[in-house]
Specification:
This protein is an all-alpha fold and 96 residues long. It is 76% helix and 0% strand. The protein has three helices and no strands. Helix 1 runs antiparallel to helix 2 (42-66) and helix 2 runs antiparallel to helix 3. The longest helix has 25 residues, at 42-66.
Length: 96
């Protein structure tokens, strides 16, 4: 259970994470040649993937915390496993 006093904090976290995900998509669509094409570098792809993963993890935790009666422990374990899988995938992309 999340204390009621943290409601505004998690609401703000969800709002900020959602806005930053939108800005990340805008930044990627403005210069797609850095991620795709013959001049694409793996470092840019890994940075974009890491930023997206971190923001999605923050958004999911904040949204789960806003659910009444939700347990952050279970959500935290699931998000941590997804984060580790994403990080492993990005390491493979980086060293490929």
């Amino acid at each position: 259970m999340v204390p009621v006093s943290f409601h505004d904090f998690f609401s703000g976290c969800a709002t900020v994470a959602g806005a930053l995900i939108g800005l990340l998509f805008v930044a990627l669509s403005v210069s797609p040649e850095k991620l795709t094409g013959h001049d694409a570098r793996a470092e840019h792809q890994v940075r974009a993937g890491a930023a997206f993963s971190a923001l999605i993890n923050t958004l999911v935790i904040a949204l789960v915390a806003l659910l009444p009666g939700a347990s952050l422990g279970q959500a935290g374990i699931i998000v941590a496993a997804a984060g580790l899988a994403t990080t492993s995938g990005l390491v493979v992309v980086l060293y490929r």
